Amino acid sequence: MSQFVQKFTQDAIVGEPEVVEDQLSVREVADHLAWRRLRDAVVAFRALQTDDGSIPDQSDHATASGYLATILPAIAELAPFFPHDATYLAALQRDFARWEAHDFGVPDFLDSLNAFQPQEHRVDGLGHLVVFPMYTQNGSASRFVEAVLVEVIWPEFVAELEAGDYGNKLFVALRFVDFTPGYDTNSAVLFPETVAMREIPTFTWGAIFQDREAARYRRVVRAAAEITKLELPDDAAAMLDDQGLTERVFVMWDIIHDRSHMRGDLPFDPFMIKQRMPFFLYSLEELRCDLTAFRESVHLERTLSALPDANLAEAQREIRDHARLVQYAVVFDRVFRFAITGSRVRNYDGLGGQLLFAWMHQHDVLHWTDTQLTIDWDAVPDVIIALSDQINELYRRSIDRPKSAHWLAAYEMLTRTLTPHPASKWARGLPEETLAGMPKGYTDAVMDDEFPLSMFYEALNKKMAKVIASTAGITGSSSDSSASPVGDVGEVEGAAA
User: Fold this and answer.
1) Residue spans of alpha helices (H) in 105-242
2) Low-confidence residues of the chain, pLDDT below 50?
């Protein structure tokens, strides 16, 4: 437990018994007038803020105080519906009041952040009211106030998985209920490090919105499968028609992925948060964790499938069945969405998707033949595990290598599968002055789009761009995941992988 984070103790529910009996679910809270007042006041308050969260214009302070006169009573009115967050919601009101007393300078919500401990309450369907000045990853880079109603996703089989060999006490799985504009974007995470605060504590939780991940997966994969004429296996196709099932699959994937960042034969600080690196190092780290989730799912499926069904508990059967679906999700999300989402400026997730596609194609388990995509699913697990092994060996060797030598080895590994840009300085061989110089020279020599899209992906991107763009702000309850792909398939049919 961090020295900055006080041990959580649940406050007793204060009030008459009938107050408890009238407890609303978080979805009912979304229709409560106090939530609507809070949300609308937060949206209006945001218009006064600058990028660092402050309101420097003195002439706006009276208006800001007027909005707080709505925000604070609304939080107090909603607090009884979230008794497990009583300490946090009380601290939140104090942080807002202190901010106002200090003339709305750069906000500091460390006290309320320390009081918010959602990892202590991983109960399926439990709600949280979350309000912070914060930026939203893949959303807004400004630390504006956000107000979010969320619901925990924690099925029994995931609890069983986490209690066993896949422990991850910091992981929280969420579903959107309602939110302010910072989350009407591509952001699918709620991370404490995004909150405005005076100092950095040891973080004790991290949350992912699996409903958004599932909804955009369903829309993108449905369109991509139609465009490429890919015939999906029946169980993979079932995910496209079942939001709840896909959410549970993503919870299982993410809980294994998240814990993988600090497990294995790793260099120090494997996610490279504290240092500037060539972006392809981030690609390998994210892909390494996804492929760990893939290989662990293969292990779980094979191990549990070897046992008689009658000998398995219900949770074990759920783990077995979802493990198979995690494998589809990793492949399709990486190959169809990651590879062509976002700009071509140091797009490390995009590069990871390109690498997985090319690896599968070159190892003859993915075929683009006669303008149709086919996948040999029986052979896929061992081929993808071989890529996982290659990345793991790169990491294991890196422990004994200088940083620059590790970077060069990583690049060499990538170029065995992917073709770099013809103008790449790295591909031609870095000059001696760069090799003998500081790491900054290595990083500066990497092109923004060091590994351009293949002809297959260039064509696919033209057909998928509008579908992918349409997933911004999507949630499990708001999505029409059966959206048709845009345009015909002509250009993709003419592409060569």
Assistant:
1) 110-115, 156-163, 210-228, 234-240
2) 1-21, 481-497
**Is residue 333 a contact partner of residue 356, using CB atoms and an 8 Å limit?**
no
**Structural domain span for residue 357:** 214-493
Residue 185 maps to a domain: yes
Please give the torsion angle defined by the CA atoms of residues 366, 367, 373 and 375, in that order, rounded to the nearest 10 degrees: -40
Residue 349 lies in a domain: yes
Q: What is the pTM of this model?
A: 0.90
CA distance 81 to 15: 12
How high is the pLDDT of residue 17? 33
H helices then E strands: how many in the chain? 20, 7
Pair of tokens at residue 290: 């996804």
pLDDT of residue 23: 82
Q: Which letter does DSSP use for residue 223 in this model?
A: H
pLDDT at 15: 33
* 171 and 128 within one domain: yes
What is the per-residue pLDDT for 480?
Answer: 56
- Could you tell me if 147 and 131 are in contact, meaning their C-beta atoms sit under 8 angstroms apart? yes
pLDDT of residue 16: 34
Residue 485: predicted pLDDT: 43
First to last CA, the chain: 50
Residues 330, 191 share a domain: no
| 42 Cβ neighbours under 8 A, 6+ residues apart | 67, 71, 131, 145, 146, 147, 180
Indicate whether 393 and 250 sit together in one domain.
Answer: yes
Alpha-carbon gap, residue 218 to 479, rounded angstroms: 9
Q: Which of 182, 204, 226 is the last residue of a domain?
A: 204
Residue 259 included in any domain = yes
- Asked whether residue 256 is domain-assigned, the answer is yes
Domain count of the fold of the chain: 2
How many CB atoms sit inside 10 A of residue 261's CB?
Answer: 16
- How much is the pLDDT for 274? 58
